[in-house]
Each structure stands twice: as C-alpha cells, then as structure tokens.
Amino acid sequence: MHALLSSLLVAPLPFALALAAASDVRAFKIPNQTTLLCAVGALPALLLSGLGSEMIGLHLAMGAGGFALGFILFAFGLWGGGDGKLLAATALWFDPGAALPLILAITLVGGALGLIAIGAQWFSTAIAPFLGLAPLKLGRWATEAPYGLAIAIGALIAFPQSALYAMYFGG
C-alpha cells in the first residue's frame, strides 16, 4: 500500500491520542468526540488493512476487553470514565499479540506520571519552603495524574508491535 495512504489510514490514532492527552492534562477530561474519533478511525484502517475477518474480529474483541478493563478501573475509582472509554477505543487498534506491550507501556507511563505527581507534591511541601520558594500550585496534580496521557503515550510506544501497524508499515 502506498505510504501516504497508509499514513492517512492510521492518522486518527495518534491525532486522537494527542487530543485526548492534551485535554486530560489541561482539564482532567477527555471529550467523547475525541474517543469517538479514535474508535471510528480504527474501522477504515482495519477494513482496508488486508487483515482477515478473524483478525478484525480479534481487534473488536480487544476493544471490548479494553472497555471491560476500563469499566472495572472506573468502578473501583482508579480511573475516570473518559480514561476507560479512551482505553476501549485505543484497544481497537491492537491485536491480542500486542495486548501485553500495550498494557505494559500504559502501566509504566502511568507509574512514571504518578511518581512525577508525588515528586512535585514532595518538592512543593518539603523543598520549596526550605529554598524560600512559594509552594507549587499543583491543583489536582497533587493527588492524581491524568491517565489519558499515560494511555496516549503507552499506545504510541506499543503500536509498532501491532499487526495493524505491520500491515501498513511492514513493522
């Protein structure tokens, strides 16, 4: 397939992830339109990829699995609803063989974000006053991290492991 067409067909994924990450960092909210762009953008990419119907079905199953995982994390108060929906939409772009790299990358990036939030809180309360600096105005960052950012970065790290990426870019 022509490189430009391949790039256009997969463009909704990084574009939607960038929008989701920016919105989540700014307002701790992921708009439904952004998640919808990610999900709907997967359909032409899957249908024109040359993957067989069984593999496309596995991608749809990954989306359902992402929704289930996101719902569980939301139900336990660990994630917001937007994070769960973004995971489901993002998972559509991945096959089961890429599930572990996806979850691992999201988890590691999320852990790093959590450590940054903890470090910023510690700096603000323990170090800044000692240095004569005003405490940082962390807002919600003092107690939580925008997990949409972790989903976005993790998905972009893991995407080259997916069969869909390989179909378009020979990866």
Kindly, what is the distance between the CA atoms of the first and last residues, rounded to a whole number of angstroms? 13 Å
Largest sheet: none
**Gross geometry:** elongated
Uncertain stretches of 5 or more adjacent residues: none
Strand content: under 5%
Give Rg in angstroms.
Answer: 18 Å
Helix content: over 70%
How many DSSP-defined strands?
0
Count of helical regions: 8
Provide the succession of SSEs. Answer: HHHHHHHH
pLDDT average, as an integer?
91
Given helix and strand content, the structural type is mainly alpha
Total domain modules = 1
Q: What are its keywords?
A:
mainly alpha
Structural description of this entry:
It is a single chain. By secondary structure, the chain is mostly helical. It has one domain (3-169). Helices cover 71% and strands 0% of the residues. Helix 2 runs antiparallel to helix 7 (147-158), helix 3 (32-47) runs parallel beside helix 5 and helix 4 (53-75) runs antiparallel to helix 5 (81-91). The longest helix has 29 residues, at 99-127.
